[in-house]
Amino acid sequence: MASTTVNVVRYSALLGGVFYGIAHRRSLQKAHDAEVKQHAIHEREHLIAEAKEAWKKKQESGKDGVVTDPEDPRFDLEKLIAKWEADSQ
């Protein structure tokens, strides 16, 4: 049978370990949440940059009146080939 001193030390160590685990888990969770937030911000910035590039391309391609996107209903292959021939000369 264990003495009261041993039981006090045993349960004190158990409670200390539980509280340490809780505190450590909170710090890890806080770091993970900050990383997830930073990743979301970076991803949003990346998507905005891609959208800006696509918009710029769209604006530049609209200057000469030739639609280069084959999915566009206004796409005309003959006009595109004529534009390429004019650019190559």
Automatic annotation (TrEMBL):
Q: Which domain of life is it from?
A: Eukaryota
A cellular component term from Gene Ontology for this protein is:
proton-transporting ATP synthase complex
Q: Which GO terms describe its biological process?
A: proton motive force-driven ATP synthesis
Where would you find this protein in the cell? Mitochondrion inner membrane
Q: Name one Pfam family in it.
A: ATP-synt_E
Q: Which terms in the Gene Ontology molecular function aspect does this entry carry?
A: proton transmembrane transporter activity
Keyword terms: ATP synthesis, CF(0), Hydrogen ion transport, Ion transport, Membrane, Mitochondrion, Mitochondrion inner membrane, Transport
Q: What functional role does this protein have?
A: Subunit e, of the mitochondrial membrane ATP synthase complex (F(1)F(0) ATP synthase or Complex V) that produces ATP from ADP in the presence of a proton gradient across the membrane which is generated by electron transport complexes of the respiratory chain. ATP synthase complex consist of a soluble F(1) head domain - the catalytic core - and a membrane F(1) domain - the membrane proton channel. These two domains are linked by a central stalk rotating inside the F(1) region and a stationary peripheral stalk.
Quaternary structure note: F-type ATPases have 2 components, CF(1) - the catalytic core - and CF(0) - the membrane proton channel. CF(1) and CF(0) have multiple subunits.
| Family of the protein in this entry | Belongs to the ATPase e subunit family.
Indicate what this protein is called per its UniProt record: ATP synthase F(0) complex subunit e, mitochondrial
In which organism is this protein found? Trametes cubensis
